[in-house]
Amino acid sequence: MKKDRVSSDGFFRIKFVGHYEPNSGRQLWLIAVFLKNNDITSKLFGSNQVPINFHIDNWVLESKNLDYVYVPVEGSAKLYNRTSGKIIDLPYKGISTALFLGNYFTGNQLVEVYTDEVVITNLIDSNNKKIAVDDSAYEKWCRPNSHKGIVVRESITAKIRKFAQFLVNR
Prior knowledge:
With about 170 residues, the chain is an alpha+beta fold. Helix content is about 20%, strand content about 40%. The chain has helices at about 40-45, 95-100, 135-140, 155-170, and strands at about 5, 10-25, 25-35, 40, 50-55, 70, 80, 85-90, 100-105, 110-115, 115-120, 130.
């Protein structure tokens, strides 16, 4: 089982309670969410267990100022505003568990990086901008050895940040 993810101040905790494969090859983690040791999973998500993306090596849980917590719920990730207690539904992403590379916070933005697009969410007004990724750009930036038949999911946080910046600036 995965080790719990806890905010740096210990206020917000994601507990891994299981995993499952709903269909051929699509694996998901099941989580429960706690605030100050109170289970708020049902209150926030309408269910006692929430499926999140399986490949979460590059998942950044919280913004630097601790105002926001990102939860990579499969299909539609969630952003929890700790100040208001509101959940922000991020844009729907089909089979996100297979496409999710990672996320990070920068300034007043959340950046979600998938193999086929980057989604930038403004933390102030919740507006989103999607930037399509063409296969050659993804291969160049995130899988430089894939042409050799080597496909390894590794910690690529620095690469996905550079990749997202490349896409934003092109």
